[in-house]
Design a protein that fits this description.
mainly alpha; 5 helices; 77% helix; single chain
Length: 119
């Protein structure tokens, strides 16, 4: 359970940073951010499939962090230089919806793995 919470915190931060990476060129969606988000998402699926209890607790933690960030209306800055600041990245990542998608995927993959192991 503790490993799942630590994994959830790390995965949340990774997906929040990956989704806010800036590229100096004028892209509407940063290709680097999309590629990094896909890598973090793939890692989330692997973790949740291989260790379903860890994935389940990590996914639940990620979704809860997003709910708390939305409920408390944390402020953030969208300045290009602020994407590595943890106090800015966590609330900014919560409003991008990437962390909640990764958390929901981790929960669903873990549940599917746990259901298939029961048979």
């Amino acid at each position: 359970m503790v490993i799942g919470l630590v994994t959830g915190a790390v995965m949340y931060y990774l997906v929040a940073v990956a989704s806010t990476v800036r590229v100096p060129e004028n892209f509407m969606f940063s290709p680097l951010a999309l590629a990094l988000t896909a890598l973090v998402g793939a890692g989330a699926v692997v973790i949740a499939w291989r260790w379903p209890i860890v994935g389940l607790s990590a996914g639940i933690l990620i979704v809860l962090v997003v709910v708390v960030m939305a409920a408390m209306r944390f402020s953030w800055s969208s300045a290009p230089s602020d994407w590595l600041d943890p106090l800015n990245t966590i609330p900014y990542g919560a409003v991008t919806a990437y962390p909640v998608i990764v958390g929901a995927v981790m929960v669903m993959v873990a549940v599917l793995q746990l259901l298939t192991n029961r048979r």
